[in-house]
Amino acid sequence: MNTLSDAFMQAGALLAGFDADLLQIVGLSLRVSLTAVAAACLVGFPIGAAVALFKFPGRGAVSLLLNTFMGLPPVVVGLLVYLMLSRSGPLGVLGLLFTPTAMIIAQALLVTPIVAALTRQIVADLWREYSEHMRSIDAGPGARLTTLIYDARFSLMTAALAGFGRAIAEVGAVMIVGGNIDHATRVMTTAIALETSKGNLAAALALGFVLLTIALAVNLVVQVSNSVATRKAALV
Amino acid sequence: MVKPIIAGLSLSLILAVGGVLPSQAQALTLASTTSTENSGLFGDILSHFTKDTGIAVRVVAVGTGAALNLGRQGDADVLLVHSRTDEDKFVADGYGPYRRDVMYNDFTIVGPKSDPAGIKGTHDAAAALAAIAKSGSTFVSRGDDSGTHKAERRLWAMTGINPSGGSGSWYKEAGAGMGATLNTTSGLNAYTLTDRGTWLSFQNRGNLEVVLEGSPPLFNPYGIIPVNPAKHPHVQFEAAEKLVNWLTGPLGQAAIAGFKVNGQQLFFPNARPQ
Amino acid sequence: MSSRDTILPLDVRRLVFEIDGTRLLHDIDLTLAAGKRTVILGPNGAGKSLLLRLSHGLLEPTSGEIVWRGAGTRARPNRQQAMVFQRPVMLRRSVLANLTHTMKVRGVPRNERHERALAALALAGLSRLAECPARAMSGGEQQRLALARAWTSEPQVLFLDEPTASLDPAASRSVETLIGGFHVAGTKIVMATHDLGQARRLADEVVFLHKGRLLEHTPADEFFDNPRTDEGRAFMAGELLW
Fold first, then answer.
1. Which domains does chain C have, with CATH numbers?
2. With bands split at pLDDT 50, 70 and 90, how would you rate the model's confidence at C24?
C-alpha cells in the first residue's frame, strides 16, 4: 500500500518539521474544539446534574431529548447554525459566519448534549450513594448540585473527553459555518477533506495521522493527570 | 476549587469570541468555486493583491450555485464564478451592480485509456457525450449545480439526450466538488467533464487521461461580480471594487497569465478595458 | 450545647409505615425525652432502621405523625438533628474538607468553620489525618469522621443506625467513647443496635421492637434483667431470630 507508507512518512516529516501552515491548522483545531468543549461543560454539567437530581414536570422528556441529541449529525448542526448566522438570518448582524467563533458555536451545540447526557448518568449513579447523607444534613438544591458535580469530577472529565473526541473529529459543521478558509478557518478535518478532494490522498492521510496523534496527546494528558489525582485522593 | 475552573472556562470563552471580532473589519470575503480554489490560483495571485492594496482576502470555495447564493444572502462581498447565464440573472435581479470578464479556461473530457466509447481524438464534445450515452459507458457528473455541472448540462441539451434516465446505472451523479468527482471517476474508470486547472493538479489519476479537448462549447469564461450594497449595506463594496479593478487591470491580468502548474498556464486573462 | 429552643421531647404518634401495601411499622406510639440515652433493640427486620429514618425525616410516614416540640410535624431533617449510618458516606475529598462541607451546608459562618473542624478532629482522634483522603481511611476512622461531622453541627439529637456493626471491637470501643462524648455534652442519643453488650454499656432506656410493633419501652436495667413480654425474654435469651 504505497499510499499508506507515503502517508506515514509525510506525517512524520510534517510533525518533525513543525511546518508553519500545519502548526496554524493544528492550533486552530485545538482552539476551536477545546473552547467548544469548555462551553459545553459549563452548560452540560449543571444541566445533566439537575436532570439527575431534581424532579420536575417533563423530566423524562428532557432526558430522552438529551440522549437523542447525542447523535445529532454534525452537518445538520452546521446547517442550522449557518442559517442562524447568515447575514440574512436572525443573528446576521453579529457577522460571525466564516469565523472561528461560528465554528466554536456549532461544535459547542454538537457536544453539549453528549456532556449533559453522560453527566446525568454519572450524577444519578453517585446520588444513589450520597442521597441519604445529603438529605440528612438538609442540603438544598444548590448544595446538592455543586457537591455532586465536584465529587464526580473524575468521571466528568471522561465525559468531557468524549465530547472532545466528537468535536475534534467532525468536519460537517465546521466546513459549513467556517468555510475552510485558508489561514482563517481551516482546521485539521477540513484540510483533510480538501486534500482528499484534490486527489492528494497521501497528504490527506498524513494529516489524518497528525490528527490522531493530537487526539492521542490530549487523551494522554487527561489520563495521566486523572491517575495522579486519583492516586492522591486514594479513590478506588 | 470549582470557582477557578469556572473562571478559566468563562475567560477562554470570552477570549475565543473576542479574539475573532477585531479581525472581521478588514478582510474581504470572496465566494468562488471549488475548481478555481483547487487549482491553486487564489493562493498564488491574491497574495500579490494583498501586498499591493493591504486588503486581505478570505476565499470561501463552494459550488457556483452556492456561491451565488452567498451573494444573494449577503454573506460574501464579491463573487468569482463561471456560469454566464446565472451571472447575468444575478445582476438582473439586482444583487450585483455589474459583471466583468476576468479570465477563461477550458473544460476537457477525461476518460479511461481503453476508451470504451471510442471518442479519443474527436473534436465534438456534444457528439462525444452522445456516444458515451449510447455505449452505456460510465459517466460521472458533478451533480452539484456548479459552473462545471451547468456546462455539462448545456452539452447534454445539445445532444437531445436526457442522462437522468440512466441515473444510478451508467450516469453517476456525484453531488461533489471537482476533486472528489475525479476521485470517483478514477475509482470507477469512467468518463467525466473536468476543468483543465483541477485536472492539471490532480494526483490520483489512475487510468484516466484527456480524451477530448478544444471543442468550442468547452470554453469556460469566468466573471467577477461585487455584491450590491443597496441590497446589503454591510458589504465592503469599496474593497470589493478594488479587487475587481485589480483583477481586471494590468497587474491582475498579468498575475493570472503568470500562474502555471507543471509549466502549463491554466487560466487565460480576457478582461476588457473599461 | 448552645442555648436554643429545644426540640425535645419527640412525640411519635400512631406511626404507620407501608411499602407496596406491606405494613412494616404498626401504630408506634413513643415519646423520647431529653437526657436519657435511648437504645432501640430488636431482631432483624423489626423495623429499627425504619423508625430511626422516619423520626429523622428521611422517610415519610404512611400515616401518623412525627412531632418535635416547638416545630410541629416536620417533613425534613432539621438542623438540630444529625444521623450516623452503619456505613458512613465519605465525600471524595480530604477529611478536613468533609467537615467543612457539612458545616457550609448547615450554614455555619465561614470564620468559625476551621476552628470547629479542628476541635472535632481532636475529639475524634483524627487530627493527624486532616489532609488525608477520607475514603482512604479504615472503617473505624471513617465512622469517627462521621461522628466528628455530626459534632460540628452541635445537634440536640443524634440518631445512630447500628454504627459499629461493620467494625472490629477496638474500633467499636473508640466509637462508643465518642458517643459518650456527645451524651456528656447534652446531645440526646437514639441508637439502634443488635449488639447486646453494647446496649448494656450505653443504654439508659430501651425501646424494644418486634415485627414492626413497639413491645416495650422501659428503663435499661429493667429490660435486661426482667423483660415484661415473652418476646422480650426470648430476645434476651438469644432465641428470637426475626
1. 10-236 (3.40.50.300)
2. very high
Q: Domain extents for chain B?
A: 26-104+221-269, 106-218
Q: Which three cell numbers stand for residue A181?
A: 478558509
Looking at residue C16, its amino acid is V
Which of C85, C106, C132 lies nearest to residue A137, judging by beta carbons?
C106
Q: What's the domain range around A161?
A: 30-181
CB A54 within 8 A of CB A141: yes
Q: For residue A103, is it within any domain?
A: yes
Q: How many domains does chain A have?
A: 1
Identical fold between B26-104+221-269 and B106-218: yes
CATH class given for the domain over B106-218: alpha beta
Q: Which run of H or of E encompasses C214?
A: strand C213-219
- What average pLDDT does this structure show over A60-71? 94
CB atoms near residue C184 (< 10 Å): 8
Query: Mean pLDDT lowest for which of A89-98, A101-110, B102-111?
Result: A89-98
Asked, as a colleague might, if the bond just before B273 is cis with ω within 30 of 0, I would say: no
Are C85 and A133 within 8 A, CB to CB?
A: yes
ipTM of this model?
0.90
Q: Which residues in C have their CB inside 8 Å of a CB on A?
A: 56, 58, 76-79, 82-83, 85, 88-89, 91-93, 101-102, 104-106, 132-133, 135-136, 153
CATH number, domain of A158, equals: 1.10.3720.10
Tell whether A186 is covered by a domain: no
* Whole-number pLDDT of residue A126: 97
DSSP annotation of B228: P
Indicate yes or no: CB of A135 within 8 angstroms of CB of C89.
no
CA distance B94 to B207: 46
Q: In sequence order, what DSSP letters do the residues of A56-106 get, joined into one string? A: -TTHHHHHHHHHHHTT--HHHHHHHHHHHHSTTSTTGGG--TTSHHHHHHH
CB C188 within 8 A of CB C150: no
A130 contact C CB<8A: yes
The minimum CA-CA distance between B96 and chain A, rounded to whole Å, is 16
Other Cβ atoms less than 10 A from the Cβ of B43: the count is 13
Could you please state the CATH topology (level 3) that the domain comprising B26-104+221-269 is classified under: D-Maltodextrin-Binding Protein; domain 2 (3.40.190)
Residue of A129, A153, A233 with shortest CB distance to C133: A233
Residues B199 and C53: their CA atoms lie apart, in Å, by 79
Query: Which residues in chain B touch residue A38, judged by CB atoms under 8 angstroms apart?
Result: 9, 12-13
